[in-house]
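Take a look at the protein record below with the fold in mind.
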Amino acid sequence: MPKLTKRTVEALMPEAKDYFLWDSQIAGFGVRVMPSGAKTYQAQYRKGGRTRRVSVGRHGKITVDEARKLAKEIMGQVAKGENPAEEISQHRKAPTVAALCERFFEAHAKERCKPSTQKEYRRAIDLFIVPALGSFKVVDVERRDIAELHHKLRDKPYQANRTLGVLSKMFNLAEIWGLRPDGSNPCRHVPKYREVKRERFLSQSELQRLGQVLTEVEREGSETPHMVAAFRLLILTGCRLGEIQTLKWDYITINGMELPDSKTGARRIPLPQPARDVLARLPRTPGNPYVIEGKLPGQYATDLQHPWRRIRDRAGLSGVRIHDLRHTYASNAVSAGMPIQMVGRLLGHTQIQTTMRYAHLADDPVRQAAEENAARLGSMVGDIRRPRLRAV
């Protein structure tokens, strides 16, 4: 066996079958010549009674000396009791991030999450995660890869943080499923972007304009009675869009709306008389269990966004979202002096911190009460208005 050099390797000619030429200096280091003429450097050793072989590079891509150095490293790993060939084989078989995404969606999202959450996860996976990381092996993803993807979405801080949350959950499950070592979640310590919460509330005059437009479109028939009723119910109950959109007649009882499932689980929502009046006026189609009927028989309306845009633009409320009707309900309750805890119960919040975004509105009635009380007291302690300066 000669010492492998560039000259000896390049002199090797292909044969009908592949063959090996081993180095005279390092046991187990050689070159494999394929019938096609391709030549790859190999490191061969025995482990567990079996011969194992690792390809360390292709001739032309790396030099003989580089291949010899890599072969030495592999033999050193074998001497320590490791099995490089098996590790490489396992790495080749390891799932990609794209495969992890599908397993996460099928085994977790579909089993445990509501349809709206599934939709958000699917969007993050298809638009952001798979295009950026889909071809990566799950075991190879590092914190810098996550941070880079998060940074690319910096102009959309809300979407960036939601995508980071999906990734974090996926890699937690990857640890549980044995696809990564425990405590190796690459999303750890990647800081989220600050999100500016929108707090758009309709003023009294804006609500009156909206109410007028709802009456007009219902009277002229440009929007269906069910669509108009949906927006009125959102204003009068403070419900989430999905809660009204999928509301069934069976859920309406003497106690209110008994929802078997919502964002926060089963929930009972008070149904005040104005809301009951809206429901009483709605036409009902036999065989359709939903309050807000859609175009398809027996189904609920799936598109409220387009009707809402037509209505809000006609009312001069461009930019107002459907969710802002829920904010308006909450802001009116707090401004009227209702305790924050009660507002949270009406909105179905599970944590008081969620409701505290409206807490500053409670200052308005307190400030007004202070002004009125001080005005009464001021009249009793004499004229305390600022004196006018005399002209010199």
Observations:
- DSSP finds 16 helices and seven strands in the chain.
- The longest strand covers residues 39-47.
- The domain at 204-364 is CATH 1.10.443.10 (hpI Integrase; Chain A).
- The CA atoms of residues 33 and 39 lie 5 Å apart.
